[in-house]
Design a protein that fits this description.
The protein is mainly α. The protein has helices at 2-34, 38-44, 51-55, 60-64. The mean pLDDT is 89.
């Protein structure tokens, strides 16, 4: 019985840890994107409307085709 509870708790914490890391990565990416000026965004070929897709790891170029 203890093994089942231990495994379930371990899985729960692992899942929670994964979600926290993804949340932090998303917010760090958004902060870095918002720090870019318009010239830098133009050089990269992205606009502020692309930030959400970029931060979520979606391919922006596919959406423009």
């Amino acid at each position: 019985m203890t093994t089942f509870v231990d495994n379930r708790a371990s899985g729960l914490f692992s899942s929670l840890n994964t979600k926290i890391k993804a949340w932090r990565r998303y917010h760090r990416t958004m902060s870095e994107l918002h720090a870019l000026d318009q010239r830098e965004l133009d050089d990269l070929g992205i606009g502020t409307s692309d930030f959400e897709n970029i931060a979520r790891g979606r391919n922006v170029a596919d959406r423009r085709s």
